[in-house]
User: Fold this.
Amino acid sequence: MKFSKKYIRFNWLTLVLIYLVVVAGSFVRITGSGMGCPDWPKCFGQWIPPTSEIELPENYKDAYIEKRTAKIEKFAVILQKIGLKETSDQLKNDPNLKVEQGFNMKKTWIEYVNRLFGFFAGNAMLVSFLWLIFKYRKRKLILLTGSNLILMGFQAWFGSIVVASNLVPWTITIHMLLALLIIALQIFFIKEISPIQSKTLPQSKLEFYLVWICLGVTFYQMFLGTQVRESIDELTASGITRDQWTAELGLSFYIHRSFSWLVLLLLSFVAWKNEQKNKYISIRFVSFFLIVELLSGVLLAHFETPGLVQTSHLIFATIIFGILTMIVFRSRILSIKPI
Assistant:
């Protein structure tokens, strides 16, 4: 079945919107704006957030603490039912959940923009889904886009849990991993509908498996990076300075740093083999973004860098993940003979 150029381009736009949600979410994190809107999906009970605390009722803090406590108790029950009793108890007994931040217009609007990107991305996925149903009616792809749309809805709901739990670290990590899964499914969908992206990339057996390994390590790197970021936030809140971070961060930081060089070595070899024969532009792109990603990581590790570098570090990693995902989906083994 042939899909129209408009539909293919629309799904590329949808992918861009999903990426913008990741970028906005990172900016929310580095500016500490996650609690800029204490409720969800509205912001301070309004679809358009306030610009001044004068617009809020006097007891708004008490009201939102009460609402948050009720939501957390419901979520804790779910955790307990799936066997996470210890996590459930920790969440219910967290004293930070009894503290409501004061109104900050800048943080409120940063979080609001993040939600707007999520709204646009979610609705773009819904339009794509309905477009597919009414025009193309391909069952396999309907199941794929439908599943991703449900996942996007779950991600939005889980975002409310992240807010309600006052940004408990492990919820942020799950939120990030779900975003990567949504990106991967959208990329697979584009590969299925686009004549260009559906073309296979023949590779040697060694190159094929190395690309898979690079994708797996990159995914793990992003997971570790989230853990390192959470640890840095805790250290900063405790008053520990940057020059003491390395000694305090522990094993996750050292693995994260070491695996960066591992990915560089593996992809450098793949890029070298690519230039010898295939010259696939996607591998050239991923090599370029990896270099930029490593440079931003060095800046974060050794220098006092602005928050935008942190956002860049995440978005470059996400782009690398996306390109590697597309390469994996399109790759096939050309020969069983080793290089």
Notes: Residues 107 and 190 are 35 Å apart (CA to CA). The chain has two domains: 1-195, 200-339. The first helix runs from residue 5 to 31. Residues 1-195 form one domain.
